[in-house]
């Protein structure tokens, strides 16, 4: 018997579109054809479990071979096979998915069947024509008294289908898909190229995949197993398998949920440096152990892109080529679930092993802060396990730190003032001065800290954050009693004019203030709001904060009327301006702002004053 016919499609133009544009990358053809072979194998195993197939299963594996001289790639399986009628139904009618019908037919008999079947679209087979000028199917059904089916198509809408007998019949159950590779696809005749594709997409398929006599996959990756079966060594070994040249992970989360969606996987916490390392190819998405993509931004919240690992879910909706995720309610639920699991893991680590958690803080602190800034629900959980580090390297929770400074660092209005530095070495003199007053100073020197400080200021009631060099200590934490100036108004005005003349810089706004004699003689500061906005803009604040980058730098120069230096400047008898310049340069030096010619002049002047 031989039959000739036309593939059932609605328009002659659809087939070239499927061939050329269905998939964004031509290498996908191998994933699709191997996945189909795995489906056929899984279906047969399901029928055997249900008692509907009573024959010998034998060795169930998928074989991929390449014959460069004959220009052929062959994908063979020993699954349930197809009859000629089934080929007409499943192959010739494009977009009728055999996998979908099979699941529907057996869904009430075996709930696990659906999770074992990869195909959902019925279009994957036609990806073969992206690289082949002709495709053959040789198939022998598992059903008794059926003939071999041989289907051939050259990429047009025409096909031939016959049932050869005798020596031309297929000898054993299963299907061989033979691709006659087109002239423009020579790369896929190279063994190394095919091995790379198989390793990328089929490394963890549930049925053994053999390529040129070598097994290329692990059929039971650890995310498919129960956590109770696994040791720490299993998890770290798998991490090295995924990322061969990476440092060992800090810890991990094993995801395993079957309601209201199916999701398994393992997320690893890597060591994160003091910068945002958005390597978005570190989390791999699988669907029933088939690699889909490493672009998971719709499934995983952006702040979790710092994690590594694997997510596997049959419930994540994909477009027809499986190349892109489609955001919908299921994806949002998965996104929320993963966020909760990560927060719960961190909370558990903090509560069960505070010392161990603190040891890891340098590596996970940036991640936690980014999560708090990105996700309100994560913030609500993380506020109990985020840690603040002071310049003495002691760590506190938000509650602990508030209690630690509340008595000493409240201003006259009852607000708690948190002092911090973003560069403890450069701002050492300011930090030391604060500590001499009994104040504590936090270290906020990570890239996200300008944003994090702003968030905490919004969230914490009656609490303000001030950089330790943003003003004099008397102004940073204003108390009820404020010192009075020992200078008359005329002397204060004269002192201001002397310093303005000595500084001669319009970006420096000079003012005289009555401060404690313990404060520095001259303090140079920048408006806290403007400086913070500029810091945030430099770290990607975006939006309206871009405008602050356009403002010229300007500083406040506060002259301490109650410091002995003020008296010396006023009594200078011709040297007052030189003393004022010296005191101003000392303030610049304290801020790391004295450089070049000005620094040379300062050194020379200092020598002359000795």
Automatic annotation (TrEMBL):
Residues that, per the record, bind ATP: 32, 36, 77, 82, 97-98, 120-125, 175, 322
Highest taxon, organism lineage: Bacteria
Keyword terms: ATP-binding, Chaperone, Cytoplasm, Nucleotide-binding, Stress response
GO molecular function: ATP binding; ATP hydrolysis activity; ATP-dependent protein folding chaperone; unfolded protein binding
Family: Belongs to the heat shock protein 90 family.
Protein name: Chaperone protein HtpG
